Amino acid sequence: MSDWIDKQHSVVNRIIDGSITIDSIEEFENLIKAFPNDARLHRVFADRLVNEKSLNAADEYNTSARLFIETGMPLQAVASKIIEWRITKPSREEGLAFHEVLCKCDPMDTQAQKFFTGLAYEEMVALLTKLTLYTCPANTMVKKFGDEEHELCFVVSGALEETFHHRLENEENLKKKIRTSLVEGDFFGEIYPLTDENLSPSDIESITHVELLIISKPRLLSLCTEHPNIDLLIHTLCKSRIDSDREKSSKTVRKTTRHQLPMQVNLKIFQSETGKSPLNLSGFTDDISMGGTCVVLGAKYQTGHLDNLTGKNVKMQMSLPIESMKINILGNIVWSKEISVEGKKTAIIGIHFKEMGDIDRELLKGYCCGSEAEQNLIWSLWNSLMDK
To answer: Which domains does the chain have, with CATH numbers?
Structure first.
C-alpha cells in the first residue's frame, strides 16, 4: 500500500471528521481536483458551500450522490440528494434518473442500504420528503435504555456504541451488558409494529461526530398506509435487526454470541508521513462481523494518542484459534476511544473492513456463523490461551 494512498485517506478523513479545517474555498477546490472521486470529500465540500451561501452547493451534492452510488452506498447518496433537492427542486426527469441508478446500485451488504434500492419511484419520492437529517457531536447520548421508541434512524456517517442490557440467568437484579458498534450503513430504532408502543432495549451513544437520517413513527405510519410496499420493506428491515438482537441476548453467562467471539489480531497501521514505518500493534477482537470489528489493543500500546490512529489504513492478520489459520484483511480505522478494564485504561479502536480475498471472506463467515458447539469449543480454546 503506497504512501500516497495512505496520505489521501488520512487527509480526507481528517477533513471529514473536522480535525483539519480548510481556510478557503480555493484550497478546497484544489483538494477536490487532487481527489475527484472521493464521494465523502465532495459531500463535505458541498456542506461548506452551503455555509458560504454558494450557488454551486447543489452541483456538489449531485456529484457526491453519483459517487456514493458508484461505490455501493445508496443511503449516503440519498442523504446528499435530500439536501440537493431542498436547494433546487428537481424535475420529474431528474427524479426518475436518480431512481434508476438507485435501483441499479449494488449496495454494501447491509439491510439499510438494500432498503433504499427496493423502493419504487413514487415510494422513493414520498420517503425522501419525510426524512430528516440530524447531526450530533461525539460522546452524545442519542437514546437511553427504556426510552419510548419514536423514530427509525439510519447512520449516514460516523460511529456509535450500542449497549444492550439483559438479566443474567437465575439473577433478578444483575444485568449483562453487551456492547456493539453502529457505523455507516447501519440503522436503529425498535419501531415495528408501527401501531405498538415499543421501548428501547439499549443505550446508544455517539463515538464520533455522527450524521443520521431520521423518520418519525407517525410519518412512517402515514407512508405505509399510502404505500403498502414500504410497510413490507420496513418489516423486513426491522426483522433483520430483531434477529440480530436475539443473537446478542443469549442467556448463557459466558459470551457465545457469534459477533462477540474473541480473535487474536496483529495490526500493521500505515503512517501518513512519507518514509515513516508502519505501526505494529496486537490485541484481540470484540464484536466482530463481516463488515468490521472492534479491537482491544494490547497493554504495550500507551493510551493518550488515539487521535493519531483514526482515519489510518490498516492491514489486519487475525488468527483463528480453532483452525490454526490466519485471515488477512485491509481496513480503515473509523473511531478510537479509551475504556476502563479492571480499573486500567485500555485503548479500543473500530475498524471498517474494506478488502479481503474470497478464501478469507469464507473463513470469516464460517467463524462468525458457526454452530453453537463450535462457538463453545472456540471459547474453551480462548480461555485456555488466556490462562497461560
So the answer is: 3-128 (no CATH), 132-248 (2.60.120.10), 258-387 (2.40.10.220)
